[in-house]
Amino acid sequence: MVATWFEIALWKRILAALVLGAIVGMIWGPGSASIAWIGDLFVRLIRMVVVPLVFVTLVSGVVSMGDPSKLGSLGVKTLAIYMATTLAAISIGLFLAAIMQPGVGVDFSAAVPGEIQEAIPLSERLMSIVPSNPIAALAEGNILAIIFFALLCGVSLLTIGERGKPVADLMDASSEMMLRITHWVMEVAPFGVFALIAWVSGTQGVTALLDVITLALAVLIGSVAHLVIVHGLIIIKLTLKLSPVMFFRGARDAMLVAFSTSSSSATLPVSMSVAEENLGIKPVIASTVLPLGATINMDGTALYVGIVSVFAAQAFGIDLSLTDYALIAGSTTLVSVGTAAVPGASLFLIAAVMQTIGMSPEQIAVVIGFILPFDRPLDMLRTAVNIGGDLSVSTAVANWEDEFDRDIFERPLKY
C-alpha cells in the first residue's frame, strides 16, 4: 500500500486531498477545526526551510554565475516584468468589475466594521532591504534583507577567487541539502492540504461566497483570464515560444500548495523545487527571481484589490471616473511592494487603495468587515495566481539570461 501511494504523482495526491478535505469539512462543520493542527504543522515544516533555502541557494547561484555584472541586467528585467504583470492583473480586475458591477445592490447594513491593518510605507520597506543585523534578518525571515545579504556574500566569494572556494562548495552542498529536505516535506503535503481545506470549508464554508456570488465570480474569471492570457499566452507562448500546457503542468504542484496554504512565502520552497526540476529554470534564477517574486509580485492580490475597490465604490454609490480607475491601478501596483506574503495580508492593501478614491475610514472599515468572512477562499485563489505569475516570470528571465534548460521543461512528467 505504501509503495502504491508513492507511485501516484504528487499533484494527484494533493488534488485528491483538496477535494476530500472540502467534502469532509462541509460534512463535519466546525468540528473540522480539531484537525487544523495537521495543516499548521505542514505549514511550519515548509516555513522551516524557507530562510536557509533562500540564503544558501542564492549565494550558490551567484557564485555559479561567475560574473557579478549579470546581476544588474537580471534585476532590471525581473523588476520590470513583475511590475508589468501586476499592472496587467489590476487592469483585468478593473475591467471585469466595471462590466459585471458586483457591488450594485449590495447591502452593508449587517456588516461589522473590520480592523484596518496599517500599511507599510514604501520608504520604510525600501530601508528594510539593508539589514542592520543580518542574523536578525535571518531569524525574522525578512526575505528582502536576506536576498540583499546573500547577494553581497555571493559577490564577495566571486571577488576573492580561489580562497572563497571552500565556502562556495559549502553553499553548493547546503543548497542540495535544503532541496532534499524540501522534497521530504512535500511528501507530507497531501495530509497538510487535507487538514487545511477541511478546516476552511468546515468553519468558514464555501457557501459564504453565495452572499457575494458576483464578486467571487469576477475574481475567479479574472484569475483564470490573467493566468491564461498574460502568463500562458503572452509570456510563455508568444514571447518565449514555449508550450503553456507544459508550463502549467510543471507549475501545478506549487500552485496547488499555494491554494491550500494561502501564503506565497510558505510555498516558496515548493516553487523553487518545481522551477528547477519541472520547468528547467537553473538555480541562479530560481534562487533570485522567486524569493523576490514572493515578496513583491502580487498579481492575484492586485486583481482582487481592483475588483473589491470598484465593488465598494458601486455599493456606496460612488461614481468612478477614468482618473479614479488610473489611481487605483497605479496605487495598487506601487503599494503591492509592501504586501506581506501571508494569508489575508491584502486587506491593508485594499484600505490603502480605497483611500485614493476618496472613501472615508468608516466606509473602508465596513467593506473590510463585509468581505472578511469569505476572504479566505478568495485568498486561496489569488495566492495560486501569485505563484503562477512568479514561475512564469522566472521562466522568462531564465530564457533571457540563458539559464534555462529546455529539455527539462519539455520532458514527460509522471502523471
Unreliable stretches covering 5 or more consecutive residues: none
Major sheet: none
Which band does the percent of strand residues land in?
under 5%
Kindly provide the name of the CATH class.
Mainly Alpha
Which bin fits the share of residues in helices? over 70%
What general outline do the C-alpha atoms trace?
A: globular
Which value, in Å, is the CA radius of gyration?
A: 21 Å
State the order of secondary-structure elements, H for helix, E for strand: HHHHHHHHHHHHHHHHHHH
- Provide the CATH architecture: Orthogonal Bundle
CATH superfamily: Sodium:dicarboxylate symporter
Head-to-tail CA distance between termini:
19 Å
Structural class: mainly alpha
Kindly summarize this structure in a few lines.
With 415 residues, the chain is mainly alpha-helical.
Written description of the protein model:
The protein has 415 residues and is mainly α. The chain has one domain (2-410): Proton glutamate symport protein. It is built from 19 helices and no strands. Helix 3 (36-65) packs across helix 13 and helix 10 (213-239) packs antiparallel against helix 11 (244-261). The protein is globular, with a radius of gyration of 21 Å. The model has no long low-confidence stretch (mean pLDDT 83).
